[in-house]
Amino acid sequence: MGLMNIKGEVVLQSDERAVKWFIKAAEQGEARSQAILGIMYEKGKGVPQSDEEAVKWYRKAADQGNAHAQYNLGWMYEKGRGVFQSNEGAVTWYTKAAEQGYSQAQFYMGLLYYEGKVVLQSDEEAVIWYKKAAEQGNAVAQSDLGWMHANGRGVVVNDEEAVKWFRKAADQGYPVAQYNLGWMYNTGRGVKQSNEEAVKWYTKSADQGNADAQFELKMMYYDGRGVPQSDKEAFRWYKISAAQGNANAQYNLGLIYANGRGVNQSDEEAIKWYRKAADQENAYAQVNLGWMYQEGKGVPQSDEEAVKWYRKAADQGYANGQSNLGVMYSKGRGVPQSDDEAVKWCREAADQGNANAQYNLGWMYANGRGVPQSDEEAIKWYKKSAEQGHADAQNTLGGMYESGRGVFQSNEGAATWYRRAAEQSHAMAQNNLGKMYQDGRGVLQSDEEAVKWYRKAAEQGNAAAQLKLEIMYQKDREVSPSDEKAVILYTTPAEKGNTNAQLDLGVTYENGRGVTQSSEEAVTWDTESAEQEDANAQYNLGLMYKSGRGVNQSDEEAIKWYYKAAEKGHARAQYNLGWMFENGRGVPQSNEEAVRWYTKSAEQGEVQAQARLGFMHVMGRGVSQSDEEAAMWYRKAAEQGDAQAQANIGWMYENGQGLLQSNEEAVKWYKKSAEQGDVQAQARLGFMYAMGKQQIKDMQMRKLTLESCMQKDKESPNLMKKLSNGTKKQQSKEMLVAKITLDGCMKMDEA
C-alpha cells in the first residue's frame, strides 16, 4: 500500500500516507519497507528529514540482509551522516551489499579500490568489482571496465575488450561510453578506424550534453572527417559546449573570436569568453585575458588588470603566466619595477621549460639584472630557449658565439645559430647571416648567399640590411636595393641584360615597391631573365602563369617554366612541379611523377616537399606505403619548424606508427606544433596532458576536478574518459578541463 501511495497507482500520490503504511510494515519487521522508510527520512519525503532516523531504519533492514539498505548504510558511514564517520563501517556494509550481488555496490567498491579511497588502492581489485557489476548490466561499470582494459590498469591492455565493454554501456545510452566508443573509432583502437562511426557515437553522446563529445564533433566538422566540412556546424558545437560552462570550450571560443576563424573577428567577444573561462580558473584564458588588457584589445588598456590575470595564472603554476608576470616586473608595468621579482618569476617558468622565460632569464644574467652578471649562465639559458626554436634566443646565441662571450669564440657556431633564427624570418639574424656570408666567416664566402639573406632582412624593413644591399650593388655585387632607389639602380643593368637586375626589377614591379604595381611589367622582366636561363626567374614566371597574374592563366605554361627551373635544381620549382603532377594541373595526373619531383625538392631541404612526401608515403600514393619513410620525411620537415609535420610526427609517436611508440616524443612534437598555432596539435596536446600519457612535472596540467562519487568527470577536449595516470575521473556534474597548450600564443617582449 505504501508503494502505491508513492507511485500514485490506484490512489492519489501522497508521501505522508506512504510513510504511514511503511511504518506499519516496518515495525512488523518487513525489510523492504524498512529500507524505503530509511530513504524517506534521508530525503525528508513525507516526514521531517532526519539522518538519525534514516540510519535507524537502514540498519534494521541491513541486519535482515537487504542489499539496498546495506549499501545506503555504508554511504551514511562514509559521509558521517547520522552516525560517526567510519571508513571501516562503510566498507563493511558496502561489501555485504556487493557480495549479495547488488550491482551498484559492486561498482562502487570498484571505484573505491581504483581511487584508494577508504580502502588501499588496487587496480586489480577495482577490475574484479567493476566486472561483477558490468556483467549484471551496470552501464557505468561497463564503461569503467572498458577504460581499465584500454589503459592496462589491473589488466593487460586489450583494446578489443575495451571496445566490447564501451559498446555494451553505449548501447544502454550511457553518454561517457558513447564518447569513448567514438574515440576508439576515431583513433582505430580495437576497431577498424572509421570517421563515420566516430561521428555517430560522438553525436549520440553530444546530444546528451557530453561536452567532450561536443568538442570532438567540433573538430570533425572543422576537418570534414566523417561529415561534410562545416565551420558553421563546428562553431555551433563549440558554443553548445561553452554555454554548458565547459571552461576549455569557452577558452577556445575566445581564441576563435580573437583570430576570426569561421566568425567575424571580435575582440569584445573574445574577451567575453576568455573571462568566462578565466573565472573558472582556466590558466590559459587568464593569460590571454591579461594579454588583451596589456594590449588594450577589446578592453581599455590596463597594465594593472594585465598583471592581475597573469598573477592568477602564475599562482596556478602556469609557465606562460609566470613568464609574462616576470616581464611586467622587469619593465615596471602595472607593478613597481623589480628585477628580483622578474628573475623569480622568469626562473619559475624557465624551470618548466618555457622558452620565452628561458630567453628572458638569459638576458637577465647577460646584463646582471636581479642576478650577478654571468655570461656562462646567460649562455646556458639562451641555449635552452634556442633549442626549443626561440628565434630571439637563437640570434642572441649566435652573437655570443661570434664575440666569444661565455663560450669559446666560433664563427661556425655563430653561423649555425644565426641560420636557425634566420630560417624563422628573424630579420636581425638574416642580416647577421648575410654578413657572415659576405665576409666568409663560419661559412664559405658567397656574395649570392649574402644578397639572399640581406634581401630577406631588407624586405622586413631592416635598415642595416637595406644599406648593405645598396653598397654591394654599387660595388657591382649581385644585389638589389629597395623602393625608389632600387628602380633607378636596377633599370640600367637590367636593360643591359643583367639577369639579377632583371629578376629584382620584376619583383619590384610585382610588389609595387618604388613603382606603380604592375604584374604585366613583372612578367616582362621575369621573361627577360628567364630566357637567359635564370632559375629563379623561371620559377617566378611559372608562378605568374599558374595564378594568371600579368598573363593569361595557363597551367601548361606554368609547367613549362617550373620544369626549366626544376631541371636546374630549383627546389621550390621542383616542389611546385610535383604539386602540379599530383593535382593533374597542366599535365596528366601522376602520383609517381609527383613523388619524383617532391623527392628531388625534399632532398634539398624544401620543407613543404618533405612534409608532402611524408603524406605520400603514409598514404601509399605514387610509392609503396611505408610508415617508416613517412616518419623520416615528416621528421625532416618538423625539424625545420613545419607545424603540420610536427603534429604528424607527434601522432606517429603517439600511435607507434612508423617508429617506436613514445608518449614523451609525441608531447614534444605536439608542443612544438601547438606553439605555432596548429589547432590539431593543440587539441592532441590537451588530450595527452589530460590523460597523463607521460609523467608531467607541471601539476596544473594534471589538475582534474573530482565531483560526485556516483557520476563522471568530463575532462579534456580529446579525452577518452579517464585515460590518465593522474586522478580517477569520476562521474561528475562538471569538470575543470585539461588545458590546450599554446605556449607560443601570447609571447611577450624580451625582459
Automatic annotation (TrEMBL):
SUPFAM superfamilies noted in UniProt: HCP-like (SSF81901)
Secretion signal, residue range per the UniProt entry: none
Stored SMART domains: SEL1
Pfam families in the cross-refs: Sel1
Domain of life: Eukaryota
PANTHER family: ERAD-ASSOCIATED E3 UBIQUITIN-PROTEIN LIGASE COMPONENT HRD3, SEL-1-LIKE PROTEIN
Protein family (similarity comment): Belongs to the sel-1 family.
Name of the protein in question: Uncharacterized protein
Biological source species: Plectus sambesii
